[in-house]
Amino acid sequence: MNNIFKRWKISLVILGIAVGIGFFTINGKSKVEKDDSNNIINNSSEVLLSSLDEKSLEYEDMESDYKELEYLESILNNQYFVLINRDNRLDKSYVPSNLKKSEAKFLEYVQDNNLESATSAAAKKMFDAAAQDGISLIGVSGYRSYSLQKKLYEARVREKGEEKTRAYTAEPGASEHQSGLAIDILCNEYQTLDEGFENTDAFTWLTENCYKYGFILRYLKGKEDITGYNYEPWHFRYIGNEEIAEDIMNRGLTFEEYINEVKNKIDELKK
Fold first, then answer.
1. Distances (CA, A) of 123 to 106, 211, 234
2. What pTM value is reported for the model?
3. Which CATH number fits domain 85-270: 2.60.120.280, 3.30.1380.10, 3.90.550.10, 3.30.70.2520?
4. Where do the domains of the chain lie?
5. CB-based contacts of 153: which residues, under 8 Å, 6+ apart?
6. Distance CA 245, CA 234 (A)
7. Percentage of the chain with pLDDT > 70?
8. What residues are annotated to the active site?
9. What was the pLDDT predicted at 72?
10. What is the CA radius of gyration of the chain?
11. Would you say the C-alpha torsion 166, 172, 177, 179 has a positive or negative sign?
12. Is the pLDDT of residue 263 over 80?
């Protein structure tokens, strides 16, 4: 892409030199010759300048596309934009390098209250902001290791069967909780992980404000065929970019849909 820009710049310089040569060439000629030459040069200059303008616009468009391509690729390479689902699993040995005990309030009896450090800080800010608005948020689950997720999944399969378990529970390696970027959130007034949470003031506050702290609602109602999981109004995912989080929330996108949009745009720009 950089070589293309260089070739355009060289072309612009050559065209500019051509205009200059035409100007200096007429200095030694008679008045009639100069007048004729002036007309020729003027016409040629107009054509050349028009061509310069067109090429300059084409160059600016290419440069703009290149910058957009760089930006989109940086999104996919960002650690906070890793897509985790049944088709994109974490290795069983994966453990976030910067796990820490959550700064946000968790249920006292919950042991999996660790989060990735930036996620923890963002969750604390979000919980504090909610409290200022009279909303008491409370964490229910944070980081889960591969082995813990395996035990949880197998226990639920024994209790509910494979089909029902898969609707709400990720297999080991397919859980966002293993990344330390996901947090299950309820409130003091409602502490049951079910769809009833969506009827609380806490859920309303979260859907209206979570993006301000880099979070998105991860598993949407009506998008089960895309995410692979049933609707979970309590499951929020940290992506770290407030503007993109706002866009995702405002458009009602799943994380899968957003990532696919980015990949499709990259493919278009590379054609």
1. 11, 11, 14
2. 0.79
3. 3.30.1380.10
4. 2-76, 85-270
5. 165, 169, 170, 171, 172
6. 17
7. 77
8. 232
9. 94
10. 29
11. negative
12. yes
